[in-house]
Amino acid sequence: MKKYSDLISEAANRTLSRNRFVPRVGMLRNFLIYNCGMYDAINKLIEDNSTLKNYNTDYQKPLSYLFQTGKYPDIKDNGGVYYTDKLNNLSRVLDNKGDWDPVNKLNTNSFDQADLLYDLYNKIGVYGEVGAIQNDIQLKKWILDFSKENNLYDLIRKNLNFKDYTYWNRKNSLTGEIAENQVREMLVDKGCTILYQGGDGDFIDMIYGTDLIISKNGKIYTVQVKSKEDAAKKALDGSGYSNIDWFCSPSSVGSIKIFTPKHADGKEISKTPPVV
């Protein structure tokens, strides 16, 4: 017969560590976000900590370029001052510097939510139960039942600082930033002028789907960048991107692919070789 101490040790070894729990639960994606109530709970926390602000003055340059394309009837030119209702009275969580805080994306990031739940379950003393579940179906059921039986909003608010859970968001943003800079470099090499590049937390991207605004031969183009080719191709048919001209992604080393209605399978662009 095994000793009690041995049984306790075996149980501890079966309990998932953070490094195993977070990816496993994060992969539940929409089930965790929507079915398990994380989206609603996080949205309430975001609302509690948000500040109303008119962002029109912060985005005059990109608004002027978008206005010139003639594709955005919501943007008005009031004697050289550009305005859209879409940037007025936006409610967002701001950091200590008054800038957009990445926690605003926690409501749709299942991996950061899984990270939060790991700490929450430990804090309230139930992780020993859920962390020992090996079967994926049983794990989903436990998380779903817990969300139905408890007020996630109150539990998170009382036990954690939800602003601490942005690691996976930052990781994804870095990947996107690298892809965006690769595309930018290639477009410049091909004679394009970069008029605007917003970066992380940029409302021109979040509202209009535009990562880059460029000009070529006197014409303005809007560009959406994806880190993978299949995502760029899929975005070509996305209803939220109807005004985007080019969908771009890094391809092989030293090249990018540009997807347009005319080039639905992508047009590969390589860097101009240096003159010898």
Task: Based on the model shown, name its key terms.
276 residues; six-stranded mixed beta sheet; two-stranded antiparallel sheet; alpha+beta; disordered N terminus; single chain; 12 helices
Account of the protein in words:
With 276 residues, the chain is α+β, with helices and mostly antiparallel strands. Helix content is 45%, strand content 16%. The protein contains twelve helices and ten strands. It has helices spanning 4-14, 18-26, 30-35, 38-48, 60-69, 110-123, 127-130, 136-149, 152-159, 167-189, 203-208, 229-235, and strands at residues 50-53, 76-78, 81-83, 90-93, 193-197, 212-216, 219-225, 246-250, 255-259, 267-270. It has a six-stranded mixed beta sheet with strand order 5-6-7-8-9-10. It has a two-stranded antiparallel sheet with strand order 1-4. Helix 12 (229-235) links the parallel strand 7 (219-225) and strand 8. Helix 2 crosses helix 6 (110-123) and helix 4 (38-48) packs across helix 9. The protein is globular. It starts with a helix and ends in a 6-residue tail after the last strand. Residues 1-12 have low confidence and may be disordered.
Short description:
The protein has 12 helices and 10 strands. The chain is of the alpha+beta class and about 280 residues long.
Content-based structural category = alpha+beta
Number of strands: 10
| H/E element sequence | HHHHEHEEEHHHHHEHEEHEEE
User: What share of the residues lie within helices?
Assistant: 40-55%
With strands numbered from the N-terminus, the spatial order across the biggest sheet is 5-6-7-8-9-10
Overall pLDDT:
93
Helices, by number, come to: 12
Biggest sheet layout: 6 strands, mixed
What are the segments in which pLDDT stays under 50 over at least 5 consecutive residues? 1-12
Radius of gyration, in Å, reads: 23 Å
How big a fraction of the residues is strand? 15-25%
Rough outline: globular
